[in-house]
Amino acid sequence: MLKFFKSYKPFFIILPIISGIIIAVFYKNLKVEKRLPYYQPAMVDTLLVEPSIRYVKKYHRIADFSLINQNGDTITQEFYKNKIYVADFFFTTCQDICLKMTSNMSYMQERIKNDSQVMLLSHTVTPEIDTIAQLKKYAIKNKVIDSKWNLVTGDKKQIYNLARKSYLVAKKNPSQHYDMIHTENFVLVDKERRIRGFYDGTDRNDIDQLLDDIQLLKKEE
Length: 221
What we know:
The protein is of the alpha/beta class. The chain contains 6 helices and 9 strands; from the N terminus they run ααβββαβαβαββββα.
């Protein structure tokens, strides 16, 4: 018996190595890559969603839009066609969470400025104050790169509907018609105009996670 094991000693040495390689390859092939969820209105806090769509469970996409940016250019969904983008809602005179949100948008802009697949979009919730001139002043102050980041204003009803019916990130202000209370949420939108993530725009750790998730989205293409 001892002679038998001596004869096959090389085989018993190599066998565990080969087995390990086979198991590793098998595991790699079976391993499922992480995929981001597709957010639907029914998955979001009802306070942030218009009652008419609160129970929608599938097929949700960002609606068509037509707004004006800091340069007076008309920005529509075509501007973001085949792009991954991050959207938020703010106003230029905000001295609270908007300061951190804008700072973190600037941080993201620096990280994605050479990535042609990714863009940013910030909507004002006070279009009556945030004129084109005001947005331009804010853009210059915050070193906005026009080709990467649009600050947009326009019809208040349209912005309200985008916030509550498309991006699902604003609370209704009952005191005024088409008025809203924006949140700190950043919204990750894929190339098919579907919501793939919500992030705290005031939290740098969340922003880093958002940047990582953008890379995951790019791998899906």
